[in-house]
Amino acid sequence: MPKDGSAVSLDGQGKPMWLVLELTYRCPLKCVWCNNPLDFDQYGKSELSTEEWKRVLREGRELGALQLGFSGGEPMLRDDIEELVAEAEQLGYYTNLITSGVGLTPERLKALKQAGLKQIQLSLQSANRNLTDELVGARVHDLKVEVARMIKAEGFPMVLNVPIFRQNIDQVEEILALAEDIGVDYIELANIQYYNWALLNREELLPTREQIERAEAAVIAARKRPNQKMTIYFVIPDYYETRPKACMNGWGTIHLTIAPDGAALPCQEVRVIEGLEFPTVREHSLDWLWNDSPLFKKFRGDEWMKEPCRTCDEKEKDFGGCRCQAFLLTGDATNTDPACAKSPHHHVIEMAVNKAKQKHHEPRPLVRRQVGAVTTVFMEHK
Amino acid sequence: MDEDFHFQPEDRPQLDPKYLLRWEKSQDAYVLLYPEGVIKLNATAAEILKRCTGETTTANIAHELKALFVDNTNIENSIYKFLEVTHAKGWIRS
Questions:
Q1: Calpha distance A215→A189 (Å, rounded)
Q2: What digits encode the pLDDT tens for the residues B22-62?
Q3: Cα(A300)–Cα(A321) distance, integer angstroms
Q4: For residues B61-87, average pLDDT
Q5: What residues of chain A score a pLDDT lower than 50?
Q6: Which end of chain B is more exposed for a tag (fewer CB within 10 A), N or C?
Q7: Across the interface, which of A2, A3, A96 has its CB nearest the CB of B48?
Q8: Which has the closest alpha carbon to A182: A243, A120, A137?
Q9: ipTM of the assembly?
Q10: Chain B contact for A121, CB < 8 A?
């Protein structure tokens, strides 16, 4: 008979249950923690067409995909999003729109509702207008709050995605109060992960342990408030854990991301790893890309593991952590994620954490995500 | 979340609108889809949740389930327990 736990979460059984479509890397914002590639502006010409995205949707369902995220960049910059949502709904996906809110006009919101969109994840960076605007490099705070209220008025379930870093972590209480006032269903206060633009700005963005502890205490207090209707998630950065995150629940096990140019990726950051090839849905079926491509086979299972992962009794739990982080911070994607205290490279994490602790470090400007902010041509793998 | 909530026989539980219950061929099972998650349901859980439409009373749900699963003598308590657990999880509303 049913008891708690009789209804089990799916493990995927080898199916790409979570499909994320990065419809475009174009975005009106310039967030300093953006996880899009540093050369994001190179993808504009090669974005998939509406018909190509529809084929991806059909093939994804045939492979057993259930959850679908429309992401970016800013997906609302595509003028076919309503059409793609309608197609996805008809195919039987649970459709999520992951947006900054910019471009989500009342008309388009209604059209999305009509197309059958199930849920919206909206990003918000602070409860303070000036801070939000500064962090994202555009005057959008008031617009975002207005869009949040519009989303609720249309009756969508909403997740408020709040990326957390040193500049906003001390305002968790204010952010929670604003979210409660808007009436969001889920709020995810997620410390950012350090790849691409965030890694570039890591020294200025990584909070201190004390900041994280204070924020966590505020979250716990908020969860305990009587009549708390919001589900509050709080994700601490893996830099402050002694074990790595179970990244993507394992390489090529349940997550499939399609980049704007149609490349099928085991995670959104994977293009940072040198020496891999990224075939696209233009040349191959999604079935081949998921099941047979060298990219998806590369780190599937645990054959690729070295010590200390290979003989570790926790390898089934965290799968050795994140391959991208291992590559970026140790130079070898087959190494243990250095976030793990058992990693011989763990000192690179400790150094970053110690740096965050130093109160009087030399302040540096933040690099905003925008065309021309950095050049990648001298990076080895380019 | 109200951990101590108890359903009464005359209550008419309803699936929270954030959740979508449907048959999924690729899993050969009913699944519950919601923001950021998928839950595969066993047959009994699915039969109970299918009846959480806001129109059927808890007493009737239990009655109908009894007819489906005849081998269990203590099914009623289990159904109430399941409803209370899923209520605490936010899947259903009273």
A1: 10
A2: 999 888 999 999 877 889 999 889 999 999 999 999 999 99
A3: 12
A4: 84
A5: 1-9, 382
A6: N
A7: A2
A8: A120
A9: 0.79
A10: yes
Tokens of A150: 């519009």
Kind and range of the H or E element at A232? strand A231-235
Q: How far apart are CA A322 and CA A179, in angstroms?
A: 31
With a CB cutoff of 8 Å and minimum separation 6, the contacts of A69 are: A18, A19, A20, A21, A96, A97, A98, A121
Q: Is B28 exposed, middle or buried (0-12, 13-18, 19+ CB in 10 A)?
A: exposed
State whether residue B43 sits within 8 Å of chain A by CB: no
Q: Per the CB < 8 Å rule, is B27 touching A6?
A: no
- Are the beta carbons of A121 and B35 separated by less than 8 Å? yes
Query: Measured between beta carbons, which residues in chain A are less than 8 angstroms from residue B23?
Result: none
Q: What's the confidence (pLDDT) of residue A338? A: 98
In this prediction, residue A11 carries a pLDDT of 54
Question: Nearest Cβ partner of B78 from A1, A8, A64?
Answer: A1
How close A28 comes to chain B (CA, Å)? 26
Q: Output the six-digit token pair for B61.
A: 């749900």
